[in-house]
Amino acid sequence: MSNIINVYFLNVDFLKDKAIFKKEYNNVLPYRKNKIDALQFEKDKILSLGAEILLQKACLVNNISYKEIEVILNEFGKPFIKNNPFFYSVSHSGSLVMLATAPIELGCDIEYMHDYDINLAKRFYTDDEYQNIIHSLNEKEEFFKTWTKKESYVKSEGQGLKIALNSFSSLKETISSKIIYSEIKDEYCLAISIKSFEEFYIHFN
């Protein structure tokens, strides 16, 4: 088993062109079309299509025929590719979609660093995380780093909202050792977590 996490990004602004959107939409599997059709807002439809474009690319990199895959959901709504060896996680914010793949369960999260409310930290973070943020050199950056770490960890566990964000601290070693990547790129903050204590390498595609 190769301990490599492949990460893909896509700026979806080009999908605002209706002709391009239609062309790409026609190339995705029925399950994704149904998901896109069920969305109300154009922005959400574009982001959903962007996520599938990245899944197509991930299949190509992993020598899997995209047209032959079957995406299934676990009991908590996390997607998997049936009978195939790679797991994936998707996140989007602003104009960017992020998709990460690995041979084990993982979670990724990306957040556009917009204006924020520190009171959210009081509500969704543990006290040690909150104290770490308000005493940091850059409160905004630390707020979003903590948010993406926690979101990616929850996703990697595959239990959805069953795990409350304030029920664990990303600063504890048993958690932080699974959060293998956290960085700020331009105006975005991103993180990746894995359901393992193994060492993994990250490859950006």
The helix-strand sequence is EHHHEEEEEHHHHEEE
Distance between the termini: 19 Å
The portion of residues assigned to helices is 25-40%
- Biggest sheet details: 4 strands, mixed
**Percent strand:** 25-35%
| Biggest sheet strand line-up | 4-5-1-9
The number of strands is 9
Individual helix count: 7
What is the CA-atom radius of gyration, in angstroms? 17 Å
**What's the overall average pLDDT, rounded?**
92
**So what's the overall shape?**
globular
Secondary-structure topology with pairs:
Elements (H helix, E strand, L loop, with lengths): L3 E8 L6 H8 L4 H9 L3 H20 L9 E3 L5 E3 L5 E7 L2 E7 L3 E7 L5 H7 L2 H8 L4 H19 L15 H4 L2 E7 L2 E7 L6 E4 L1
Parallel strand pairs: 1-9
Antiparallel strand pairs: 1-5, 2-3, 4-5, 6-8, 7-8
Describe the model.
This protein has 205 residues and is α+β, with helices and mostly antiparallel strands. Helices cover 37% and strands 26% of the residues. It has 7 helices and 9 strands. The chain has helices at 18-25, 30-38, 42-61, 118-124, 127-134, 139-157, 173-176, and strands at 4-11, 71-73, 79-81, 87-93, 96-102, 106-112, 179-185, 188-194, 201-204. The protein has a 4-stranded mixed β-sheet, covered by helices on one side. A hairpin with a 5-residue loop joins β2 and β3 (79-81). α2 packs antiparallel against α3. The radius of gyration is 17 Å and the shape is globular. The two termini are 19 Å apart. The mean pLDDT is 92.
